[in-house]
Amino acid sequence: MKRLIILASLIFMLMPMQAGKHKDNGPVVAAYVTGWNEFKELPDCSVLTHINYAFGNVNKTYDGVTIQHPERLRQLVELKKDNNIYIVLSIGGWTAGGFSEMASTERRRKAFARDCKRIVKEYNLDGIDMDWEYPSSSEAGISSSPNDINNFTLLMRELRKALGKDYLLSCATIADARFVDFKAIEPYVDLVNIMMYDVGNPPYHHASLYRSEMSGRVTAQEALQAHLDAGIPVNKLVLGVPFYGRSVKGFGDTAYGALVKRTDVIRRWDDVAKAPYLVNDEGESLCTYEDAESLAWKCRFIKEKGMRGAMYWEYRNDDAAGTLRNAVWNGVMGQ
């Protein structure tokens, strides 16, 4: 009998360790997909590994989750039947509050985490993405507390405990790696999505790769280093890129699909920052944005540095041909 037990133990030890059924270690190409409008067509899963559905919110009693347009989340989950795709619920977003109150007590944290697990099971999801913008900050017009940073760590621990090892847990973070104790949350998270955008307005780039005289507050190179210095391994870091621009007042729609239709502006290229921008006939910068060329440089950077992949906000801002989503997919996957 002892021999059988020893033999069984040896066989178990020699078996390859399996990641959770909803996790792997491959490259990530993730798109945020919003439920604000009805889907005219569903996302093209051939150029995605993950979809982050935006958004869920902290409920009014600070102990659970509400989902914006849950019927649209169910539509996305149906894509899993015919595609190898992860569907994750992203909770939060800019101006989304209730986090500070929810995370402030152990009872509420545990209840919130249990509700996240319920939703993951009920909707057949692959995990949760936390998008609290930002712990300890009221910049987005939400309540905050100096205790938020520590409470965020405790919340992520509760979420990991509730979700177990079989489900994804990620978070979205500000480009310069503030507002989070990254060393403390690192054991609990699978991915950290760096929101490398919104760091400048014309004449400054809002998503440059390298620093030039036109770069905004932080560049992608600097954002990566800030997160590494803060304690997140490079293979958990996903670089966020925008499918929209930031413009001067009165410019109009900045979604990439709208920008490429404009005939009244001229494209310029900053070869130091590896970033495009649009000017008028007088050469004044009107809009800073991403295009296929800048994304090719970003993806090359991602691969050279050993980052996990790329994510973008948001899928429906692309043009009809899928120029940007194809550029990200081909760049990350090396095709």
What about the largest sheet? Answer: 8 strands, parallel, barrel
Distance between the termini: 54 Å
How many helices? The count is: 10
User: What is the oligomer described by this structure?
Assistant: single chain
Please trace the helix and strand order, writing H or E for each element: HEEEHEHHEHEHEHEEHEEEHEH
Estimated structural class: alpha/beta
Q: Which shape, going by the Cα principal axes? A: globular
Number of strands: 13
Strand fraction: 15-25%
Poorly predicted runs: 1-20
Percent range for helical residues?
Answer: 25-40%
How do the strands line up in the largest sheet?
Answer: 1-2-4-5-6-7-8-13
Radius of gyration: 21 Å
Mean pLDDT across the residues is: 94
Overview of the structural elements:
This protein starts with a helix and ends with a helix. 45% of the residues are buried. The strands form 2 sheets. It has an 8-stranded parallel β-barrel with strand order 1-2-4-5-6-7-8-13, surrounded by 6 helices. It has a 4-stranded antiparallel beta sheet with strand order 9-12-11-10, with no helix packed on it. 31% of the residues lie in helices and 21% in strands. The protein is built from 10 helices and 13 strands. It has 335 residues and is of the alpha/beta class. Residues 1-20 have low confidence and may be disordered.
